[in-house]
Write a structure and sequence with these properties.
With 191 residues, the chain is of the alpha+beta class. It has a single domain, classed as Heat Shock Protein 90 (2-Layer Sandwich). The strands form two sheets. Strands 2-4-5-8-7-6 form a six-stranded mixed β-sheet. A two-stranded antiparallel sheet has the order 1-3. The termini are far apart. About 4% of the residues have low confidence.
Length: 191
């Protein structure tokens, strides 16, 4: 009976993972074809970041991480809110999965001139210093065994990059010390 339970659990996890991957591939395909941006409107970027971060607080805590947010109020943007929220979720999901246990994940949102800057930073193991934009390439996995254990497919951050580009944004990833990763999204103008 225990073998059946293990097998059933494993099968359910694989189905869930494949369904998520299929959804991400469909999103990429639609956006590549220009179909993914039908619902552009003014929305609160502040609320989008706060809501998304709030939904990850308990997940982070369960995994031994602490979510620390510094979010400027009343920042608005014109774009597809659903996709932007999905992008923030991808960033947080990656930070929770790949940060070191007992570390903090820092999320910030601020206005600089006419631009809105979103940053997420976390401690991580085994990352090279310097530019890490390779993380946004489709199916890129820096450590296949670690990503398999956490359920990573190597497509989430490429979805985030596609969403950023569809909103004329710039997305970068960098490790200044080889022990942390900072992803920065710059979009604008603020509405």
């Amino acid at each position: 009976m225990a073998g059946e339970n293990k097998w059933t659990k494993s099968t359910k996890n694989q189905v869930k993972r494949l369904a998520s991957l299929a959804g991400q591939l469909i999103t990429l395909s639609k956006m590549d074809e220009g179909d993914g941006m039908a619902d552009k409107m003014k929305f609160s970027m502040t609320d989008a970041v706060i809501d998304t971060a709030s939904s990850f607080e308990s997940v982070a805590e369960t995994k031994g991480r602490k979510l620390v947010c510094d979010i400027e109020e009343n920042l608005y943007f014109v774009g597809e809110e659903k996709r932007i929220r999905e992008m923030f979720g991808i960033f947080l999901d990656n930070a929770v999965k790949y940060s070191t246990e007992g570390s903090e994940i820092h999320v910030s949102l601020e206005r600089k001139g006419r631009k809105i800057i979103y940053q997420i930073s976390n401690e991580t193991d085994l990352i090279a210093k310097g530019n890490q934009d390779v993380l946004f390439e489709r199916f890129y996995r820096s450590d296949a065994s670690r990503n398999s254990a956490t359920g990573g497919s190597g497509i989430g951050l490429s979805v985030a990059k596609t969403v950023a580009e569809a909103h004329h944004g710039k997305l970068t990833a960098e490790s200044k010390d080889g022990k942390s990763l900072t992803i920065t999204l710059t979009v604008g103008p603020a509405a």
